[in-house]
Design goal:
Blueprint (H helix, E strand, L loop, with lengths): L1 H10 L1 E4 L3 H16 L10 E2 L4 E2 L22 H9 L11 E5 L12 H10 L7 E4 L4 E4 L6 E5 L10 E4 L2 H12 L14 H14 L2 E4 L6 E4 L5 E3 L13 E6 L6 H6 L2
Antiparallel strand pairs: 1-10, 2-3, 3-4, 4-12, 5-6, 7-10, 7-12, 8-9, 8-11
Helix pairs in contact: 5-6
Length: 265
């Protein structure tokens, strides 16, 4: 556990080996994850000419993470969250069911050349919770995730649109927003336009941090720091996956407020 903590706090992520408790959850929840693709309420999430199903909050799990009799989420990653992040007895969000297919990302109608290039060349790198608003898509802090938990649902190889993280970038982001919000009550942070500060922090991370691709199998898991810059790589030629594509469930619970989001370890 200590090695996981050292990696997580220094690099912004860590991976957990196979755990039968989590594997049991995956096997029980897989049918519900697959069913999101045919749910008419989730059709809006199929993007990039059918090469990515974003599936935001699409899994119908309850506040314990249970779906279709799976039982609550359990495993070494969950033990880590309680012991090292100090987060217990919070409500799990409905998981994102992120599914990629060969060809990702094909161009999407209405997408600007710059945005398409950013997705291809920089993995659509972002920090969660900084939402674009208004006609000019200016960024505001609106969500205060405690962490990002990635749970692979099926087998796929490491070249099939892996999760990407810029190691150590969480401290660049923390420093940038600490300066931006200095002297402001946390209740006012969401009203601040943080677009320029955010873009500058991303550029610094690209220049200074190592880009690392993260791969895991069913029964394994990975956790990313809530402030770390991360994204999703393109589907590389020759990547192998089954009919389900590259399917990962992502959980991003909101267990605290803006002050903790910025200042907790």
């Amino acid at each position: 556990m200590r090695n996981h903590a050292e990696q997580f706090f220094a690099r912004g992520w860590c991976r957990f080996d196979f755990d039968p408790r989590l594997d049991s959850w995956v096997r029980a929840a897989l049918a519900a994850a697959r069913a999101t693709l045919s749910d008419p309420r989730q059709e809006k999430w199929l993007r990039y000419q059918g090469t990515w199903f974003a599936g935001v909050n699409a899994l119908p799990n309850d506040a314990c993470g249970e779906v279709d009799g799976s039982g609550p989420l359990r495993g070494a990653a969950l033990d880590f969250i309680a012991a090292e992040l100090g987060l217990r007895d919070f409500a799990w969000d409905a998981a994102q069911v992120s599914i990629c297919y060969p060809g990702y990302p094909l161009p999407m109608a209405g997408e600007s050349p710059g945005k398409a290039r950013y997705r291809r060349e920089f993995d659509a790198a972002h920090v969660d919770g900084l939402l674009p608003e208004g006609p000019d898509r200016r960024r505001h802090l609106r969500e205060y995730h405690g962490f990002i938990l990635g749970v692979p649902m099926v087998e796929f190889d490491a070249a099939a649109s892996p999760f990407v993280v810029w190691e150590g970038s969480q401290e660049i982001v923390r420093a940038a927003f600490s300066r931006r919000f200095a002297g402001l009550a946390p209740g006012l942070w969401g009203e601040q336009d943080i677009t320029d500060v955010y873009h500058a922090a991303r550029r610094q991370a690209f220049a200074e941090c190592e880009r690392v691709e993260v791969h895991a199998r069913p029964g394994e898991a990975f956790i990313a720091h809530r402030l770390v810059l991360h994204g999703m790589a393109r589907w590389r030629e020759g990547a192998v996956a089954g009919a389900d594509g590259r399917m990962i469930c992502y959980f991003r619970p909101d267990p605290f407020g803006p002050y903790e989001w910025l200042n907790n370890p």
